[in-house]
Structures are given as C-alpha cells and as structure tokens.
C-alpha cells in the first residue's frame, strides 16, 4: 500500500488530486490546470465573438465568471478532459445509453473518474486489485472485484457522474509491484474529517487529563483524590462528634453543680440558725478544692519542697478553666464535682446532728 501514490485533499483542488492519483504521480499543478482553464475560456470567448462583439449575448458572456475554474480551485470536466488528452486518454460517460449498450463489465476497465457536487476522485485498478483513491480518505481503500459493480451502482444512486477512462495509462511502480503480489487491508481508511475530529477529541481528553494532574500537582489520579476527600470528611465528622461529647460533658458538670446547690439549699433548712446561701456554698467548694489540690501537691512534691501557693488556682473557676483542666480529665472533673456535692451534704447533716 505504501507504493500507491495518494494525494490528500487540500482546499478545493480535488480535480488536481483526481488527475495525479489516476496517473500515479505529481503530473499536474494548480497553475497548469489554470492555464488549461484560461485557454478554454479564450476559445469560448472567440466563439461568442463570432456573433458580434456588440451583441447582447457577447456582453453578457463577458460579465459572467469563468465556467471552467473559480477562485477556490475548482476545475470543470472540460479542464480534466483536456488535461488527459495530453496523455492520449479519453473520458466516456459510464452510465450513458451508448456505453450501457456495449455491455462491458466494469471489472474489465482500468479506471474511473467520479464527480458529485464539484468533487472529483479516481477509482483505479493497480496490478490485479481495485482501489478507491478518493483524496478525502486518509489512504487508498481496497475494493474487491465482487464489490466493484455494487460500489459504482451505489455512487450512481447517490447522484454521482461516472466517467470511464479509455486509453493506456502511464506505467507506475505500484502497478508493477501489485502485478506480482496481492495486498490485504485489515482496516479501511477513514475520511479526513473523521480523523481530524478523532484527533481533536484525543487532544481535548489529553488536555483535560493534564489539567486534572496539574490541579493535583501530578501526585495522583482522581481515585486517590476521592479517597483523600472521604478520609478528610470522616475525620471532620469524628472531630465534630468529639466536640459535641465534650460540650455535653461540660453541660453535665454544670447541671450537676447547679443541682447540688439547689438540693442543699432546699433539703437542709438551717445551718447555724440560717439557710445556706449560694455564696457560702461557693466558698465551701473552693475550700474543698483547695484542700484537694494541697493534698495532691504534697503527694507529688518531694519532702521538704513547698510549692508556691500562686502556682495553683484557689477558685473553682480557675481549677476548671486552667491548670486543673490540664491535669484532670473531663470524667475526673465530673467525679470531683459530684464528690464535692455529696461531701457538702454529709457535712451539713453532721452539723445538724450535733445540734
């Protein structure tokens, strides 16, 4: 397949590609085809001038654009036919009544030129096999002998004009090589537009992937990021739960202390002939915690070493808010508060009993 000459589409130069693919070489350029088109235009102008250069038809002809070429690179069938005459080749309309009456099997021909909506392409036999050399394809397309007639019939049904190329084509390397071997094509070539769309999609996907990797500093794929996100959410929920538990514990301590105060003031009617006030309860709790702190300090400090009284809090608010909060856990604080309340109640009962 590499030996087959195949020009791919550039602009609207399909007529040039069609001729060069047919002849299997760079035989024609846009400049040469334009020269042929200008020559045809001049011949047509001279024929129109025979009716008089002052006639309305002649003036109308001069105002019309060329019918043999345009600025896009399109060339007419007359340009292609005149270009092939240089090589002694002739075009015959394949589906004309005259040709159909001959009853020639298409497989016995050597090449066809097809046209539809100003697009030209070649179907040619190289060696013993047929190839579709359409310039819109990414490469030559192998056509089996049994499929050739169906392929041409399908083109006719789609509105293509098909021309049989008559005459001896110039020798080419691909024809000589394929006379000795037969090729197989595992995958048919795609249209150039399809290939470009596929390449564009691949580039977009590659760009998206690079952007994702860039966002993640190239350290992992999306799956790793999702796992990290899940772990972060789990830790966040765990932290919230711990904070909620700590808040509940603080509320329990506060309620316990408030409840003890209410119970003492309600259940013990008299102490030294008066009711216990909240200020008295606060002072007793402070004295209890101060005594507890002194006992703990004496157990921790070596014999003969006295701790400075300023190093320990002397109020219950200081104990719960600073040093005691660091040395004791929340459960110890709750237990201390409950014990303090019970101790206060027992002391009050003892004092009441002595009376």
UniProtKB/TrEMBL annotation:
GO terms for molecular function: cysteine-type deubiquitinase activity. It is found in: Nucleus. InterPro entries: Ataxin-3 (IPR033865), Josephin (IPR006155), UIM_dom (IPR003903). PROSITE patterns: JOSEPHIN, UIM. The active site is at 14 (nucleophile), 14, 119 (proton acceptor), 119, 134. SMART domains: Josephin (SM01246), UIM (SM00726). It comes from the Eukaryota. Residues 1-180 form the Josephin domain. Its EC number is 3.4.19.12. Keywords: Hydrolase, Nucleus, Protease, Repeat, Thiol protease, Transcription, Transcription regulation, Ubl conjugation pathway. PANTHER family: ATAXIN-3-RELATED. This is ubiquitinyl hydrolase 1. The lineage of its organism: Eukaryota, Metazoa, Chordata, Craniata, Vertebrata.
